[in-house]
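Data card: per-record layout.
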Amino acid sequence: MSTAAEVLQGSDDRQVGPSGSQVAPTDQRMALTLKIRRYNPEVSPDPWWDEFQVKMEPTDRLLDALHEVKWRQDGTLALRRSCAHGVCGSDAMLINGRNALACKVLVQDVAPKATVEPIRGLTVLKDLIVDMEPFFEGYKSVLPFLVNDSGEPDKERLQSPEERERYDDTTKCILCAACTTSCPIFWGDDEYVGPAAIVNAHRFIFDSRDQGGRERLKILSEKTGVFRCRTTFNCTDACPRGIQVTKAIQEVKRSILFDRF
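The structure for this 261-residue chain is written out next.
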């Protein structure tokens, strides 16, 4: 008698045609070579490159291919990931020279070879894992929370659809750091708060319920703030959520110069 595992495996190996007849399975997997920049301070003070070959479905994600390497070929490979659906923002990497989330890049779009590196501008701890503390320090410095000292309301603070639309784009940030670590100013100036911090400040500066806009604008008017931006648009191109990052930065600049500060 077949075991349950054998029955399940047999069903996976069969396909059913339009009339219900069984048809021979076809292997549509693609060969993919992953060239990964490695670093482990316990092994070597210098980084090195490793290559791995995997076979994946065309619509698998690059994150799946990295899992295949870690789970089946080299368990020492270190990377961050959580939801695997483009929401948590933890798997930002440099993929073929461009910042992206590994869970949103399809194998068919990078095959037959993909180069994977850690995001730039932050200290590499191991392999594809970087120290995110400087990034979050910049984020926290702009007061990324609602400030309203008018007391506890008896009901929700209302907004019109137009007031909500004013800052809708910048509510989409998932703090993946793809925008900030694509910025050449951030690479060379570790005091610059970076695009992600400005995006999150924008989200509250233009919120009609918030009363901390003036303080945020003062923070961002300092030399570490928005005027370090040189408008290269790298951040906008890198954002996996499609946020108009450069536009948000320019709106904060204009607000500092003309409106609220």
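Known properties of this structure: The radius of gyration is 23 Å. The first strand starts at residue 15 and ends at 16.

See the next section for split statistics.
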